[in-house]
C-alpha cells in the first residue's frame, strides 16, 4: 500500500500559514495576528483538486533554516528529515507575505537548496496591492521554474489554484541556480562530501546542512539531534580557523549573497505603484495608530483603558447570564432532591456534581467575555504592541519585550504561554520566562477572583463595578509585578546573564475578523465546559467521597436530628449576613434551618456553641433580601461529620500552616483540591459547603461564604481574609497540568519542583505579611 | 534590497542616534556574530534602508513593508548612513 503523500507548509512567522492550513484541511487551528501562534507542527488531511488525499503539515514560522529557537528547530528538522515521527515531506508549500517578498524569500531560497519540489504561494496579495505593490507571479514562476500562486488565504482566493498545483503528479524542481560565493564554495563542497560519506546524509540534504553549518555560528545547534562526525567537525573547525585568521566574515558573505540572488530574482517581478494623492497608505495608517499605542505615555493609557473595558464588561454584562446559570443549577439540585430517595447517590449528585462542578460552570459568561477580548486583541495586531511598550520594563527585569508575548498568552492559560516561550532564542531567557509565566493571572483564576471580589464588593451599581474593576486590575498588575520581580531575581542569581537583544517584527494592523474571534471564543468556552464536565467533575466526585466518608453516626456535639442548642432563629432567605457584634452574639441572615428533619444529618451551621466576644466584622452577601437575628451559626467543629471525613482530616492537617494566613481547615480543603487546577477551589468549596449545609436549600457559594464562621463565631471570610485569599491565588502554583508542561519543556523535574516551591512559598509569605499586618492595623 | 535610489549623505551613526522620522542605509552590523546573522536573516542586512518611526528605549522602525521593534541596545549594533531629502524606501 502506498503512503499518503506528505506536504509541508513553511514560511516566516505571521505570513498566514495556519490560515491556509485551515482553509485546505478544514481544521480549526488557532490563528492570530502576531508572530509565534504556531509553535508545534500540526497535521491534517487536505485534498487535491482531483480529490486525492494528502497529509499537510503546518510548521512553526521561521526566518531561516539556521534555527535559533526550539520552534524554528522543529521546522528545520522536519524539512531535513530528522524527525522520527514525521516522514521527509514529498513537497513543500512555501508561503510568503507578498508585501514583504524579498525578506520572505530568504527562507524560500534555503528551502530550494533542499532539492524538494516546492510550490510558492504569494499570500496577502490584497495587502500588497494596498501597499501599492504589483507582484507578478508569472515572472517569478518563469525565473524559479516552480508553481507560483497568488493567494488571499483569509478570503479563500487562490485555493483552487493551490489545490490544482497539489494535483500535479510530477512537480518540477526549481531551476533557480545560486552560485555559492567563491570564498566559501570550497568549504561547502568539502563539508558536503564529508556529510555524505561520514554522516550518511543524502547529497542534497548534505549540501543544505553544509550551508547551514556555515550560516549559523553554533554548529552544535545546527546538528541538533544528529551530532556531527569527527571528520565533519574537524573540517568545519579548520575552515573557521582559517577564515578567522584572514578576517573573513563567512556567514555574512553567505547571507548577503543569498539576498543578492533574491534581488536579481524579484527584479521586474515587483513593481511599485505611485500612491494616489489624498489616499492614506497602510504605512501612514499604521504610523498614526502606532503614534498612540506605542507612545511611552499614551500607550500605557491605552493599555489601561483596554483592561478597564475588559473587566468592566465582565462585571457589567456577565451578571445576568450568570444568575440564569445559577438558577438552573439550583433548579437541577432541587429537582434531584425532590425526585430521588435520600441516600449517597442523591448527595453525590447534589453535593458533588451540581454544587461542585456546577459552581464552576456559572463562570462561563465571564470566561466567554475574557476570550472575546483576547481574540479581538490577538487579531488586530495589538498584542505585539503591548510587548513593545513592555520592553523597557522587561529590560529592567533582565528579559526583553519578546518575552512578553508568552506572558501575554499566559493570561488565557499558562500552558500555551509556556509553550510559546519556544519562540525565544536565548535559552536562559526562555527558562526564566517559563518559570514566571504561571504568575500571570490565567483564566482559571478568574472564578476565584470573581467570587472573592463579589464578597468584597457585593453591590451591583456602576460605581461598585468600577471598584471591582480596580480590584481586578490590581490583581492582574500584582501578578505581572510578581513575575517581573522574580525574573529580576532569577536573572541575578539562578540563571545569570544579560538580556538578549530584542528584534521583533510587528504585525500590520488589521480589522478583527469577528467570525473568527467568536469561533475561538466559543471553542475556549467549550473547552472550559469540557474541563468542568470531566476533570473538575471527576475531582468533585472524588472530593465528595473524601468529604462524606467515613460516615459518623455521632458527631459529638448534638446528635443526629437534634435541634441546635442556643437561640437559633431561622433566617428567611439567603441574604445579607452581618456577623459579629460587641455583645458577643452574631446577627445573621441566612438560610439556617432551626431544626433538622429526622434522619437527616444536622447541618453543622445549626450546631451552636456559646459565643465568645468577637471583634466587629461585617460580611455581606450579594442578593440580600432580608435579615434576621439568630445566634451565630458556627463552623462545623473538627469532630463534625465533615470535620472527621478524609477531606476534613487533610484540611485540619494543614490548618496549622494556613491559620496564620486567616484560613481555616475548610479553605485548606479548597487549597489542597485546587492543587490540581485553580478553579477547583470553587468546586471544592461548593462541595464542602453543600455537604456542610446539606439540609438547607441550595444557595450560591458566596452566600454560604458570607455565613461561614470560625468555631468561636468570628466570620471566616472577613474582607482581610478575602484579600489574603485573592493574593494567595495570584502567587500560588496551583496547576498540575502546568507543572507537567514545565517538566516537558525544560526536560527536567528540577524546574517544576522549584517552580512549585518558590511560587507557593512566595504566596504563603506575602499572605502572612498581609494578614498579620492587617490584623495589627485592626482590619 | 532597496538601496540605490537614495542619495546618501556621509553621516554615519548608530540606529539609536538616527533622528525620528529619518531614514538610513545600513552600512555595518557589529556585535555578536549570532545576533548579526539574525538581523540579516530578518532583513536588516547591509545596504537596506531602514526608517526610524519612533522610540527612545525601544525603537520602532520601518523596513520595506514590515514594522520592526528593536531594543535600544540592539539598535546600537546597527550603523547607518543617514539619507536626506529622499523618499522613505523603494519597493
Strand count, sense and closure of the main sheet of chain A? 6 strands, mixed
Q: What percentage of amino acids of chain B are in beta strands? A: 35-45%
Number of strand segments of chain B: 6
Distance between the termini of chain B: 8 Å
Strand order of the largest sheet of chain B: 1-6-2-3-4-5
Mean pLDDT of chain B: 83
Quick overview of this protein structure:
The complex is a heterodimer of chains A (779) and B (91). Chain A has helices at residues 17-25, 70-79, 101-113, 125-130, 137-144, 159-167, 185-197, 203-215, 219-223, 230-246, 250-266, 282-293, 298-317, 319-339, 344-361, 364-380, 382-397, 404-409, 414-420, 427-436, 446-456, 462-492, 514-548, 646-658, 665-673, 680-692, 701-707, 719-731, 736-746, 750-776; strands at residues 6-11, 42-47, 53-58, 91-97, 118-123, 133-135, 148-150, 270-272, 503-506.
Offer a few descriptive terms.
heterodimer; A: 779 residues; Rossmann fold; two-stranded antiparallel ribbon; 30 helices; B: 91 residues; mainly beta; six-stranded antiparallel beta sheet; 2 helices; 42% strand; disordered N terminus; disordered C terminus
